């Protein structure tokens, strides 16, 4: 019997990173949106979940001034992120956010939590959002960047499947006191505040 790896696990992501797979790069427009919605870090703690090669975590840390931790379940992604480090850099941790003991994270609560191109892959999205709520400091912000289903012109089902459904979007945005969104072609950015 063959079992399919969860798309929220190292079993799924590690072979892709080890094989040199790359994902959409952040550009100036995306940086600007982060800066506008998240504001200056002033050394407050930030957590980037599914940090991959680490570009978003580095922007939070170096440009916005958050004291940032990037976590990813893939050892190869964490190793790649760490190769960019010169001088003071984000802290990198290899862990699976769906199974880890969250008390092992460097901080008990975060002023900003981010996840870019990650929410789509969580099997249990409600549990994932609950986990973020537990880790978010009062007045903090949850920044999510995700593709939205139906925005691509292609009919390729694999590419169409990269987006989240309206039901996933509703689950993500329910129960926050502030929900702001901004669009970047096929992507939507969400700034969610408790
Ligand atoms: C599509 S990649 C995006 C990487 C990066 N955020 C970016 O924007 O380039 C999704 C990332 O989420 C990570 N990931 C998936 N499930 C995870 C989990 N349960 N815990 C931690 N990281 C996870 C994967 O290893 C992968 O690096």
UniProtKB/TrEMBL annotation:
<dbReference type="InterPro" id="IPR013217">
    <property type="entry name" value="Methyltransf_12"/>
</dbReference>
<protein>
    <submittedName>
        <fullName>Class I SAM-dependent methyltransferase</fullName>
    </submittedName>
</protein>
<dbReference type="GO" id="GO:0032259">
    <property type="term" value="P:methylation"/>
</dbReference>
<dbReference type="InterPro" id="IPR029063">
    <property type="entry name" value="SAM-dependent_MTases_sf"/>
</dbReference>
<dbReference type="Pfam" id="PF08242">
    <property type="entry name" value="Methyltransf_12"/>
</dbReference>
<feature type="domain" description="Methyltransferase type 12">
    <location>
        <begin position="47"/>
        <end position="141"/>
    </location>
</feature>
<keyword id="KW-0489">Methyltransferase</keyword>
<keyword id="KW-0808">Transferase</keyword>
<dbReference type="GO" id="GO:0008168">
    <property type="term" value="F:methyltransferase activity"/>
</dbReference>
């Amino acid at each position: 019997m063959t079992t399919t790896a969860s798309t929220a696990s190292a079993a799924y992501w590690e072979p892709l990173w080890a094989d040199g797979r790359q994902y959409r790069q952040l550009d100036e427009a995306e940086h600007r949106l982060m800066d506008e919605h998240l504001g200056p870090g002033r050394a407050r703690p930030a957590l980037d979940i599914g940090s991959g090669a680490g570009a978003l975590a580095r922007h939070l840390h170096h440009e916005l001034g958050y004291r940032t931790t990037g976590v990813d379940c893939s050892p190869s992604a964490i190793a790649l992120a760490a190769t960019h480090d010169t001088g003071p850099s984000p802290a990198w941790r290899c862990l699976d956010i769906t199974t880890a003991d969250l008390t092992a994270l460097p901080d008990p609560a975060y002023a900003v939590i981010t996840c870019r191109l990650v929410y789509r892959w969580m099997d249990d999205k409600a549990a994932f959002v609950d986990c973020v709520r537990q880790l978010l400091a009062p007045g903090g912000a949850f920044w999510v960047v995700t593709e939205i289903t139906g925005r691509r012109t292609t009919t390729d089902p694999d590419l169409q499947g990269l987006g989240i459904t309206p039901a996933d979007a509703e689950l993500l945005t329910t129960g926050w006191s502030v929900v702001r969104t901004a669009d970047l072609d096929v992507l939507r950015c969400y700034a969610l505040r408790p």
